[in-house]
C-alpha cells in the first residue's frame, strides 16, 4: 500500500503527528480517514476549525496553518504492525522535517507517538517542558482513535488548550 503524502509547509502553526496511517487512510490517500477516527470531530469541537472537515480536505488545512505527518509513513492495521527499524528510521526522518519546517507547535496525536519519538518514558497531556527540536513547541494530545477510552469532552478540553495558545499567539 502506498505511503500517505505529508502536508508540510514553512510557517505552520501546528504540525499534527501520528504513529502511521490506517489502512483506510492508505486506501484513500488522506490523513485520519478511518470513519471510527474522531480527529476531524475533535478539531471542530475544540474550535481549532470552524467546521468539521472531511479527510479528503486534509490538504486544505495548510491554509489554516495545519500540517500532517507521521513517524512511520506506511499504512498498517495497527501500531503493533510497525517494526522497530521503521521507528528508528521514522524518528530520524521526523526530526529532519521538524528542523526544516519549524512549525510553531508539534502536536503529537497520542502519548505513545510522543514517547516513541522522544524516547521519554512518560508525558503529561498538553505542552511539554522541553522541546524535542529547538524552535518547536511540543504538545501532547490524546489519540483520536475510536478505541480510546477517554471521554470525548476530556479529549476536546485538551485540544482546546492548543486552540487557546494559538489564539493568544494571534493576539500578540
CA distance, first residue to last residue:
44 Å
Mean pLDDT: 94
Order of helices and strands: EHHEHEHEEH
How many β-strand runs?
Answer: 5
Number of domains: 1
The largest pleated sheet is described as: 5 strands, mixed
**Outline:** globular
How many helical stretches? 5
Keywords: Glycosidase, Hydrolase
Protein name: Mismatch-specific DNA-glycosylase
EC number: 3.2.2.-
Enzyme class: hydrolase
If you had to describe this structure to a student in words, what would you say it looks like?
This is Mismatch-specific DNA-glycosylase. Its EC number is 3.2.2.-. The model has no long low-confidence stretch (mean pLDDT 94). The protein is of the alpha/beta class. Helices cover 35% and strands 13% of the residues. It has a five-stranded mixed beta sheet, sandwiched between helices. It contains five helices and five strands; from the N terminus they run βααβαβαββα. The chain has a single domain (14-171), classed as Uracil-DNA Glycosylase, subunit E (3-Layer(aba) Sandwich), CATH 3.40.470. The protein has helices spanning 23-28, 39-46, 84-101, 111-118, 152-171; strands at residues 14-18, 66-70, 105-109, 126-127, 137-141.
Amino acid at each position: 500500500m502506498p505511503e500517505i503524502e505529508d502536508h508540510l509547509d514553512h510557517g505552520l502553526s501546528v504540525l499534527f503527528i501520528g504513529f502511521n496511517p490506517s489502512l483506510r487512510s492508505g486506501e484513500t490517500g488522506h490523513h485520519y480517514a478511518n470513519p471510527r477516527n474522531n480527529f476531524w470531530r475533535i478539531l471542530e469541537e475544540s474550535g481549532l476549525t470552524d467546521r468539521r472537515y472531511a479527510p479528503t480536505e486534509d490538504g486544505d488545512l495548510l491554509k489554516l496553518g495545519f500540517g500532517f505527518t507521521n513517524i512511520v509513513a506506511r499504512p498498517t492495521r495497527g501500531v503493533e504492525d510497525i517494526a522497530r527499524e521503521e521507528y528508528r528510521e521514522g524518528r530520524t526522518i521526523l526530526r529532519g522535517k521538524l528542523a526544516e519546517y519549524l512549525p510553531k507547535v508539534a502536536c503529537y496525536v497520542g502519548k505513545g507517538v510522543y514517547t516513541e519519538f522522544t524516547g521519554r518514558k512518560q508525558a503529561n497531556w498538553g505542552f511539554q517542558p522541553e522541546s524535542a527540536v529547538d524552535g518547536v513547541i511540543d504538545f501532547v494530545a490524546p489519540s483520536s482513535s475510536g478505541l480510546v477510552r477517554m471521554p470525548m469532552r476530556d479529549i476536546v478540553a485538551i485540544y482546546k488548550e492548543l486552540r487557546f495558545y494559538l489564539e493568544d499567539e494571534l493576539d500578540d
